[in-house]
Amino acid sequence: MEEARSQESAAGDEADRLIDAVVHKLRSNVHASKAATCSENVVRGQTVAAKSSNASYVPYGRTKVSPSQLLQVNVLGGRGFTNEVLEEDKSDHAKSQFVLHCQYAGQRMSAASVPCSTEPKFKHEFIFTVPTTTGLKKSATEACNPSIALHRCQHRIEPSQYTEPVCSSGDLLSHQDAIHIVLVRTSARDATLQASHHMSWRRVLVSETSYHHCFVELHGVYSESNLPIGILEVELQLLPSLSSNTSEEVLSSQMDCERNRHVESDRLLMNYVKQWWKDFLGIRVSHTHRPVKLFAKDENGDSNMICSVIHPLVADRLINTPRQAARFVSLLPFTPIPWIDGSNHNVSCWTSMLAFLSRGHGGCEDHAVLLCCLLLGFGLNAYICIGRQVNDEDHVWVVTIDEDTEQVIFWESLTGQRYIHVPGQEPQAAESHTYATVGCIFNHQTFYANIQVH
């Protein structure tokens, strides 16, 4: 009897080993197919390389992740939103909704909507992967890639998986990327941009517990960018805690050094731009009236070199062809930006990519920038084109130039249409467009102004 039991036990152990071997083989084949069809898996802000067929066995229900430094942003609530006093008397069903959007190092996330009120009940946790100089360099590079900002990260990272220190404060001290916070107000009819704020997170490097609590004052946008609209209560924490923290003096010295470098680079750029503009106007007096724009104003009223609004976007498997990219951009509703300066003249606004995608609609500048970024991601020689239409109105569209065939294609970002133009030949009547003159074209690397005689 005991011998029979021992044989049954041995047989059971052998069956368990066979089952484990089969499961391991199946999981290895699945990982191999995933590695062949998709080079990476995005897990709520963390890029984890797909496992190859010779990866070590991982028990079912558990995920083996690479060591990474996480930045946890907890939004605990809001206060002082005095513009929402009228919303207090409405029922929850009739109230408009606040939606918070966050982006850091190419990772874009959104919080659940909350009813608008003077003290909105924000309660959300954002977890980002911090690019580090240690660990997997591939993950750090991919985390900095702005291409993944086109879609929101949906999956959740479990902070409990990160317990051992990954890096020290010195590894993160030179990170200048800020957390971009965008607040959008949504209703049954529309979505309006309320605030756009860049928050520095490096104060957490000073704390021995890698924790920092702060209040963030949000300001309005466009012509109200100097007016505060409310305050957010925010907690910042690095997971896992750093192996060592830095001092206040070191952090202040680092930030002062960065600020001085930025000021010096801005000064040199401004001197160059002034000389360039003087030479451009010296060629012909009529250049004064040409639509040549060197600086762009964003939703916060900050002016930056216009080439800085372009960042090539790789859409991965979300968008397969350039024509699909044009179709996708054209589906976003066109809404002119209601910005009026002190002289009561309309001012063109080049909204940040996060604000445009979070709001879901924008002006022709926003559409053209998004389409140009996507076309650059497909490897096309794409430029933003600023010019005038046949009705003498300023307009912004996209142009791609094939240097081998000299083929020029105009892309209308508002409709998704393409117009093929051959230099020296008139376009066919059926394919004619409404573009009359070109003032300048630019992308993230070059800027050209038209000096032809119109």
What is the topological layout?
Layout: H1 2-37, E1 40-43, E2 46-49, E3 69-79, E4 97-104, E5 107-110, E6 114-115, E7 124-130, H2 137-144, H3 169-172, E8 179-186, E9 191-199, E10 211-219, E11 228-239, H4 248-283, E12 295-297, E13 303-305, H5 322-331, H6 353-359, H7 364-377, E14 382-389, E15 394-401, E16 408-411, E17 418-421, E18 435-442, E19 447-449
Query: How many helical elements?
Result: 7
Q: In this structure, how is the largest beta sheet organized?
A: 6 strands, antiparallel
User: What class do helices, strands and sheet pairing give?
Assistant: alpha+beta
Q: Rg, please?
A: 27 Å
Helical proportion, percent range: 25-40%
N- and C-termini, Cα separation:
104 Å
Mean pLDDT: 79
Gross geometry: globular
Strand order of the largest sheet: 17-16-15-14-18-19
Overall number of strands = 19
Strand content: 25-35%
User: Unreliable stretches, pLDDT < 50, 5 or more residues?
Assistant: 22-66, 134-148
What's the SSE pattern? HEEEEEEEHHEEEEHEEHHHEEEEEE
Structure description:
The structure is a single chain. With 454 residues, this protein is α+β, with helices and mostly antiparallel strands. The protein contains seven helices and 19 strands. It has helices spanning 2-37, 137-144, 169-172, 248-283, 322-331, 353-359, 364-377; strands at residues 40-43, 46-49, 69-79, 97-104, 107-110, 114-115, 124-130, 179-186, 191-199, 211-219, 228-239, 295-297, 303-305, 382-389, 394-401, 408-411, 418-421, 435-442, 447-449. The strands form five sheets. A six-stranded antiparallel β-sheet has the order 17-16-15-14-18-19, covered by helices on one side. Strands 4, 5, 6, 8 and 9 form a five-stranded antiparallel β-sheet that branches. A hairpin with a 2-residue loop joins strand 4 and strand 5 (107-110). The longest helix is centred in the first third of the chain and has 36 residues, at 2-37. The radius of gyration is 27 Å and the shape is globular. The model is unreliable at 22-66 and 134-148 (pLDDT under 50).
